[in-house]
């Protein structure tokens, strides 16, 4: 079916649509709808890029894909399917990552506009910077369940994607995960850690054994070793991976250690259970086969993924998944490991069964496999209709951009329920102007790095600060005033600096680092402030506004500046100051969609927001 827009659009828009070269980044839920909309609207010169291949779980909402496409490139199949709607279109597909060096600023400059249909923050950050550097309009979009959002990003006119802080993924104290879980998510995190300890990348920070160093458990831990002894009665503490390999991943032995011996070990820590319900150890041959609050008929009438499992069923699923994962793991080459994937049946069964068994032990409500998948994958189930609506709004923004009518491209929110004005699709009244303190799109981007120069290494600076925190890809760093090359993107050029402390290379309090990421065409100045690492505090702070480092006049102000809790690592803290340019009426916070894995962000245009990122190495 060929698209025809004759008589639908004004002649100037029709011409602009037919001649514009546009880029779609992402061929998933929104991307499929967006590509279909573009070819049916008359766009003839389209390029689409996506690194992923098609999975069975995509088929319920990514309608350009069908069962026979599973395992194939999303971008390539989306192109083939979209051409059936309009064979006259010219679509070029890339099965690649948009962050690859091949897609630099010159690549982005080829397009009249770019439309994001991504599902991760790292790629969004990168495309945001590319479009700023190329001075190309970017239409950003995201969905989460019934919520959705579309916004224009244009250099000098609107906020960029990084103008406002994005909430960090929630983390939990290790002692809570290992010793005293109280919520289903604690058990799910523990089960994912267990998967990695047994079959994945063995990370000491993800130990699932009882935490003997838990300060709350002081006293009573000595007797626990007798309970947690091995079959010969010898007292020893070995890694979970080593112990599992020694017993050849036998499900019954794994079960006994994880859900009986380790639980009895925890029970011996008397201080933990003075104000908590103590856990109940389980025995393999004596497991309840009923589901609380459900009859057998109720359970059988529910879809497999949405029914509650009895503990006996969990144990059987645990055993089956252990055997299957063991076979997969042992078939790998030396030093290779499995990677947990929510769409891998055995991996998902393992985590769901382990999480529910542990939840039962600690008196925590159990979750269906569907719920565990949503929580473990940190996802909100996608809704096909939401994707369709948001993709439609993206194309409407594209029409306005091609007519140079950027002022009409206000941020648009899709709500799950009508507002007091009976609106489901809610536009902002005005474009959100750039944040003058943004370290990405401000005229002279700069930040302050508070760090102990005697303990941070150059490698930590590159990996933890520049790449992980400031979202750079291949940074070059020079010590301003001396011209010393600290970090080079040329392989091997500054390898000898990696293990050196910052102070060894002349980086001290007050030093200024000039950072240049050639791939992103992005430059940044970093001012160093010497600070000893506080006890139980982050190893460094990255502050987008140096005035926030000045002492506050009173205790109330000081408290407000520190916003977020200090208990978790790598928290994003929002330090807000009232903008005097807005009236009291304007200063009311607009309710927006929350930050999700699909990139919907909370925004408050009535305040200047200063970003403080706290991190540990």
Automatic annotation (TrEMBL):
It holds the Pfam family ThiF. Residues 321-373 form the Ubiquitin-activating enzyme SCCH domain. One of its GO terms (biological process) is protein sumoylation. GO terms for cellular component: cytoplasm; SUMO activating enzyme complex. Zn(2+) binds at residues 160, 163, 438, 441. The active site is at 175 (glycyl thioester intermediate). Signal peptide: none annotated. Pathway: Protein modification; protein sumoylation. Heterodimer. Belongs to the ubiquitin-activating E1 family. This is SUMO-activating enzyme subunit. The lineage of its organism: Eukaryota, Metazoa, Ecdysozoa, Arthropoda, Hexapoda.
């Amino acid at each position: 079916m060929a698209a025809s827009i004759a008589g639908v659009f004004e002649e100037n828009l029709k011409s602009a649509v037919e001649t514009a070269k546009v880029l779609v980044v992402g061929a998933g839920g929104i991307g499929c709808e967006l590509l279909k909309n573009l070819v049916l609207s008359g766009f003839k010169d389209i390029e689409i890029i996506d690194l992923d291949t098609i999975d069975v779980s995509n088929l319920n909402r990514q309608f350009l894909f069908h069962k026979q496409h599973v395992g194939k490139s999303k971008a390539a199949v989306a192109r083939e399917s979209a051409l059936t709607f309009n064979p006259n279109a010219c679509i070029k597909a890339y099965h690649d990552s948009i962050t690859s060096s091949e897609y630099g600023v010159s690549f982005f400059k080829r397009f009249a506009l770019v439309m994001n249909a991504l599902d991760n923050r790292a790629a969004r950050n990168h495309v945001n910077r590319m479009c700023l550097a190329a001075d190309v309009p970017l239409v950003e979009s995201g969905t989460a369940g019934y919520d959705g959002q579309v916004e224009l990003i244009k250099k000098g006119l609107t906020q960029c994607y990084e103008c406002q802080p994005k909430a960090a993924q929630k983390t939990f104290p290790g002692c809570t995960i290992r010793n005293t879980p109280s919520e289903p998510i604690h058990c799910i995190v523990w089960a994912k850690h267990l998967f990695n300890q047994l079959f994945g990348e063995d990370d000491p920070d993800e130990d699932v054994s009882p935490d003997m160093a838990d300060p709350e458990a002081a006293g009573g831990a000595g007797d626990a070793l007798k309970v947690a002894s091995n079959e010969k009665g010898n007292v020893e503490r070995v890694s979970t991976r080593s112990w599992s390999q020694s017993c050849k991943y036998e499900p019954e032995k794994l079960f006994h250690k994880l859900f009986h011996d380790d639980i009895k070990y925890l029970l011996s820590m008397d201080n933990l259970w003075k104000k908590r319900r103590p856990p109940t150890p389980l025995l393999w041959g004596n497991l309840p086969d009923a589901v609380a609050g459900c009859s057998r008929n109720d359970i059988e009438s529910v879809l497999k993924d949405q029914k509650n499992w009895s503990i006996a069923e969990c144990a059987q699923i645990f055993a089956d998944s252990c055997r299957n994962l063991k076979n997969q793991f042992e078939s790998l080459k030396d030093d290779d490991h499995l990677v947990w994937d929510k769409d891998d049946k055995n991996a998902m069964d393992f985590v769901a069964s382990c999480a529910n068994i542990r939840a039962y032990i600690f008196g925590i409500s159990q979750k269906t496999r569907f719920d565990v998948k949503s929580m473990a994958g940190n996802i909100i189930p996608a809704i096909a209709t939401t994707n369709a609506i948001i993709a439609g709004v993206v194309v409407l923004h594209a029409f306005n951009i091609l007519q140079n009518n950027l002022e009409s491209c206000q941020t648009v929110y899709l709500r799950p329920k009508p507002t007091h004005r009976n609106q489901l699709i809610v536009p902002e009244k005005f474009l959100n102007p750039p944040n003058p303190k943004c370290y990405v799109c401000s005229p002279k981007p700069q930040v302050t790095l508070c760090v102990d120069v005697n303990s941070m290494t150059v490698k930590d600076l590159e990996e933890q600060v520049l790449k992980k925190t400031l979202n750079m890809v291949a940074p070059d760093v020079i010590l301003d005033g001396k011209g010393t090359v600290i970090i080079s993107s040329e392989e091997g050029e500054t390898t000898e600096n990696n293990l050196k402390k910052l102070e060894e290379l002349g980086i001290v309090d007050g030093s200024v680092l000039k950072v240049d990421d050639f791939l992103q065409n992005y430059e940044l100045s970093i001012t160093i402030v010497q600070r000893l690492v506080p006890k139980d505090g982050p190893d460094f702070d990255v502050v987008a506004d140096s005035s926030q480092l000045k002492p506050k006049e009173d205790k109330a102000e000081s408290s407000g500046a520190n916003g977020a809790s200090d208990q978790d690592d790598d928290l994003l803290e929002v330090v807000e100051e009232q903008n005097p340019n807005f009236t009291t009426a304007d200063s009311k916070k607009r309710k927006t969609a929350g930050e999700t894995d699909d990139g919907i962000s909370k925004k408050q245009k009535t305040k200047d927001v200063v970003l403080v990122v706290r991190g540990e190495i």
